[in-house]
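Aim 2, interim progress. The first record below pairs a target sequence with its structure tokens.
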Amino acid sequence: MLGLTTQQMVFILQGAGWTMVLSQLGFVGGSMLGVPLALSLTGKSTAARVVTGFGINLVQGIPLPILMFAVYFGAGITGYDPPTLIAAGMAIAIYSAAFLAEIWKGSIRAVPQAQWEAADCLALTSFDTLRLVIFPQAVQIATPPTLGFFVQVVKNTSYAVVLAFTELTYSARVVNNTSNQPFIIFTIAGVIYFFICFPLSNLSRRLERAVGKTRRAVK
């Protein structure tokens, strides 16, 4: 098949499977970290906003491969030798949290001020205001860019090659080292990435248009 053995194709496809596992692990972890960060960025405490903003800018300014090295070898200093899946997943989670927090901060702030004022008129607590009024609307606004960012997370898993984790890019490189057909092998890898990412990108664009129509109708 395209000059490759069945075993080589299976190895590449296994790498694609681990790419999905790693991307989901990093995205879920990033989401769990991103929610409190977004709340901190939109909260009333100036000190919390400054500290959180500094941390987010710091993470955003560090290339993801360097962050992966820092997590992997940093854990080694403590005497714990993490599996490459865990180290890469933690690094992607930290990296994702920094960007998701910004996306969700913007979505929360995009909810019209009148909604906040209406919640005040109903004497809702801050928690109930967020839970019952703001979050449902912010989630609708945030869904398209969040899904779009997940596409970037899938692509960024390729950086796990620096830790020799067997995701799609690494498995393609290993197969190329044994068959020396770089054009065919990396074209196959690129096509697999496309079939993973394109449906997500297309869905993100459709959701963005739908949300835009809904918000215009409300106005």
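The second target in this work package is listed in the same format:
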Amino acid sequence: MVTHSWAQSRKDPLTEKQVEEVREAGDDPPVRIKLYVGYLEERITEIHTLNADRIAQNKTVRLHNLFEEFTRLCDELQDNMDAFDQQHADLRKMLKEIVDKTAQWTTVMNEPALSSGYDFARKTALDSNQTAHATATQMLADETKYFAEQKKKEKEEEKR
């Protein structure tokens, strides 16, 4: 009997083109992070637009799906941030953007009215977003300190 993991049983939130973009970015940390931030921004825009549409068809189901996609993409973003953090990749510029955007995303995710059709998916998306915000904030502080120390070491070595 073959069993599939949870991730394999879920529809990938990325299109084939987006998967290829991530693949092409390879191990270029700023590019990969920027791609995921862009994909998350697309979902947030869709949530905002759909919520504002008073006559949208299947609005509850579509919002539910968008919240789930946001969660999976946000988790991928965090996995990439963690991997690149261990490599000491300089992500300070992108981390500042993530800190700003995660605050904005929280506001948009709270726009739709309460609904049993998507409230759990929204809560999960908000939790994932909050974790990404906290991770980016901590990484930004850590990287700022790390690169300041590296610069100090370089200057000391130049003096020798």
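The helical segments are 6-9, 16-25, 29-52, 59-86, 92-109, 119-159. This observation will shape the mutagenesis plan for the next reporting period.
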